[in-house]
Amino acid sequence: MLSLRLEEQISRLISVPGARRAACQLWKTASGPRSFATETAAAGSVNDSPKAIDPKVKVNKAMRAYLERAQAHNMFMKQQTSEFEIGRRHLANMMGEDPETFTQEDIDRSIQYLLPSNLFQRSSRPIMRPPEEVFPQQKEAQFGLDGRPFHPLFYTGKPNYYQILHDIRDWTLQLNVLEDERVRKGRAPPDKKLNLSGTQWMTKDELATLLVEKMTPHMYRRFILSMERLLLHPYVYRVEEFVRKYRKALIEEVIEIQAPALKKDEAGRSYTEAYANRKTCHAWVTLKDGTGKVDINGQDILFFPRASDRLQIMFPLQLLDRMFQFDISAKVEYGGYSGKSGAIREALTKCLTAFVSKEEVEILRHAGLLTHDKRVKERKKVGFRGARAKPTWRKR
Amino acid sequence: MPSSIFSHCRQVGRLRKLCSTAIRPPHGPVSRPFSMTAAMQQKPQQMLRSQRVIASELVQKAEEKSEPSSSSAASTSEEVPMELPRVQARRTSQQNPADHTMDVEGFFYTVPPAVVEPLFGWTRPVSNTRGAAGATDMRSRTLQYLHEQGLTLREYALMIRQPALEVMDYIKKSDLSLPAVRYVLYGRHGSGKTASLAHILHFFAANDWLIVHMPRVTYYNRHYKEVADSTFHPGRIDLPVCSVEWLQHFLSQNSAILKDPSRKLLTHKTYVWSKREETPAGSPLLDIVELGIKRGRYANDAIGVLMRELKLLAPETGQKVGVVVDVVNALFSPTLIPRVNKTTVPAEVLSLYCHFRSIVRNDWTNGAIVTSVDRRNVTGEVHDHDGGGNYLPRYLLRGPGWEWMDPCIPVHVKDYQDKELTNCLDYYMETRWLQHENAGTQKGRDELKFVSGMNPGVLRSLVSRL
After folding, report:
1. From its phi and psi, is residue B65 left (phi > 0), alpha (psi between -120 and 50) or beta?
2. What's the number of domains chain B is made of?
3. Residue A8 contacts B, CB cutoff 8 Å
């Protein structure tokens, strides 16, 4: 009777399917890797509100403390949510918009309008976001009412992480058995291969979020090494699902590059003009069909005393094998030599896009030549020697 | 599949090696070439996992054994032998600059080693010229890079270029009975003015001209060594040590002519140096030079006498006199030599400059005056608000200098043409001065062409690191 009541209570308190199953399931030793996707998902957050515990029921102290903590958290979150909702509606009224259709984008926009901030750090600027995003999620209960942990690897401190390592090992053993069987039967090795192109391993942070466990670089490296080793197995295609769980699709960036208009001069030579800036420098470049003449503020390429700056200007043309096919004329203002050369390079590349094919533009983009270099000098701080440098410390 | 991860881990790397090459064919590109015994590579066997552990150990042992023999095989596949293409720079065997014509423009010619030392004054090893002692010796500063290059390459090759050919052509064609013609080479820094002067200097030396050569006037701004008040001309300032050095340089360049009695280079009047010392009229010019070298106190005055006598002797004896002055505009701009009252010595007070000013004047005949103007290290107003690159003679000589030098024939020393650049790079490659693996490719040469801006000096400094 008691046990039944306990079961009920547990089911009521922790109504996450994975957790309950984990509680009921026994640890299967080496009988093949268990699917723990639900478990890791279950470890996500406290979704349900645990009700007050019946004082008659014998509950482990740790469990009781957890339940109290969870209850307090849920209460807090509930209050925050309601406050956020009121705030949202109030903000909508302030902005003279309909509170029913006032979305998060509208909130962001309104906050930016009402509380404009020029703080450099984005995270330091004022925000108004749902409490789920603001307050960190808490981990699900790891043990039952009797105080026994659900997970056999609980005492490693990182059960979900070590579970993956165990699974890799288990899969490897299973695949080895399979391979041996095939060899015994005289079958040829499989032609199938696991095609993982277009995907990459989850990053350390992504994996840490998935597992709700802290991850050190060493742990992540170990994970990657083990996974890569599994990938070497000829029958790895059989565990594709398992492998793909930890891979993320590479997002293909499609950026339309606006080439400047191609014009014709009086002699019928086509040319383009573009503007770019870098640091405090501004450059206006005209690129014309020609023989490689360079004119920078009325001087030739030796306008730049350093070879590195001259190389900057040469690079886009050299990359496309189009040196000495264009005449460059540039007007540059302000800044130093490296700023000037960087600005000219960017403007020159923009000009060049009008002359070349799409594939070549893609080459330029991949080389980072069409990316604006937005770095600027960091300001000097009061009391410091420079932006970061401190004055020499002296013992009094 | 990123393979570079494996390069860090020794154990996994070994496993990967075994898995990929010994037992089964590799799945992807192997990061490092891996040598394996031939038998193993020919027959990839299929084994059970349990057997493989033993097999892998065996393979490992085989690897260890076969390491010396297999390393050669690995090296052949891995290392690409660097092969620079053999190129021959275009040269001419005509060693007399008088024979050079526009046909051999852009070619190299070799200055005979016997001429090099007395003519250019490279008397000291290069290590000394960099140091304090050698660097302050004016004899080591005629085209010093060529000296350094010559020590490495064991030859002194100069490129035959249009400005020098033009000047030599003018000199050959000019009527020397008329007042001496002045040529002013101008061009931007590194374009080859001094190299052209060196070529012309060799032209004078090879054709029996008496040479009055001032390597680089701006040198005295810094290396003035010793300063003394002039005894002969009160108010003027002498540089005794520097003057002795210059006289030595003059003697080494012209010793054959000065020591030849048939030339009849004799003084016109008696020069009284002090109560006891005097040079009587009719004594050889060599005596003046030697006296100046021996008695540093009179070296400056000896130079003055020399200039005066040469102006007279050139038309009388028929001995042609070639004057070569590098950075002539420094003769008209203030020096950096300090005086007691914390001012600097103006050019017109320095007696050495006065003597050279007098020889670049065109009030004498049977000679030629070849000069150059430059911006570098010239003091005065030259650098102020000039937009960064004006190298024209009228601008650099300023008012007094231009008045002094007018009329003159300006000769523009331009940067390299395409064929000159190609030949220069060929020469650098031939002599292994340039050893970069891309030096022979069109792409590499294009890069050098673009980055150097076709400027000889910039090209040399770029190539010196490749």
Report:
1. alpha
2. 2
3. no
